[in-house]
Amino acid sequence: MHPFLRFPLAPSLLCHQLTSNRSSQFLQTSFITSPKTRSAGTTSKGIGKTKDMSSSEPATKKQKTQEYVLYYWPGIPGRGEYVRLAFERSGTPYTEFNDGSKLLGILTNPKKVGHPTHFAPPALKLPSGRFISQTPAILNYLAPRLGLAGEKWVKISEKQKEGEKVEVGSEEYEGAEEERSTVNQLVLTALDLCNETHDVHHPVATEDYYEDQKDVSLRRAVSYRKNRLPKFLAHFERVLDCNPENKNGNTYLVGSRTTNADLVLFHVVSGVEFAFPIRVAALRKSGKYDKVFALKERIENEGGIKEYIESGRRQPFSMGLFRHYEELDAEE
Ligand SMILES: N[C@@H](CCC(=O)N[C@@H](CS)C(=O)NCC(=O)O)C(=O)O
Fold first, then answer.
1. Average pLDDT by stretches of 10, the chain with 332 residues
2. Could you tell me if the CB of 120 is within 6 A of ligand 1?
3. Nearest-5° angle of CA 123, CA 86, CA 267?
4. Atom number in ligand 1 closest to CA 80
């Protein structure tokens, strides 16, 4: 039976995890029968209020909220996780709307979200009521506001707090924008790796089952393991290596502080390690990508992220973007 017909209540594509894998019945069931809301719990920083939004109607575009609301599917970290990490690292309050039965209906309805409507989650509702979708667009918006766009934007924000103006077009402003664009560039490359990792298990059609494209998937996995994954890791290793601020052993992709680029790479490498544990162990052992793995370990232990992981609120990888299929993994 066509996957869409099996889940008439479900939107056509749920990050490809709900409709495209025969072995993810638990996700399918939980989506249809009990749409859950995952709201961030309380942490030591007091972020992520435990507001249950599952039964409440989402605010419309005209209603202003006090805080950011992340609209994303329930049950998987997915691409929503990249947005969560930015909030968690910076200690920024946010809540989530995770009612899978309403999500696409809201995001595609101009009466709910205004212009433009949205293709797919994640989407972020800003305190103004405006919605933004596309993971990198959301991150690029948040970066200067959350101190994750690099040192130069942090300095500007500090000045602004003191009431000092930094003019658009000034050397300082342009320098900060350039740095922010560099962060965005690296975010996009890390997300390319995320997308390619996903495409290994869905190389033909996102709406079809993995089992129905397994032959191509097995071929794609060889190329991914041998060529693509090492190429991406080598790229990031080089970036870490040539950052002059890393001379003392630091592992920042940009400058000398954590940016969205570090957070996204951290999550992608974690996901790749979940999906391809044997291959990643071999790549680790090669010693060629030590800085990339050191970055991952650094972020795991950084303020905000450490507490987030320890809180148990960080959802485990399962059958979302990053999936583990034994037959796709090998040492080389
Ligand atoms: N490029 C978009 C991709 C968004 C996306 O693929 N979202 C998934 C969930 S992670 C989805 O629900 N897709 C539905 C679809 O592609 O129809 C982004 O980075 O946000």
1. 26 40 30 27 32 40 74 97 98 97 98 98 97 98 98 97 97 98 98 98 97 98 98 98 96 98 99 98 98 98 98 97 98 94
2. yes
3. 95
4. 10
Report pTM: 0.86
Please indicate whether residue 100, judged by its CB atom, sits closer than 6 Å to ligand 1: no
User: What domains can be seen in the chain, in order of their start residue?
Assistant: 3-146 (3.40.30.10), 168-328 (1.20.1050.10)
Query: Mind giving me the DSSP string for 277-324?
Result: HHHHHHHHHHTTTHHHHHHHHHHHTSTTHHHHHHHT-SPPP-SSSS--
The backbone torsions φ and ψ at residue 130, rounded to the nearest 5 degrees and listed phi first, read -75, 145
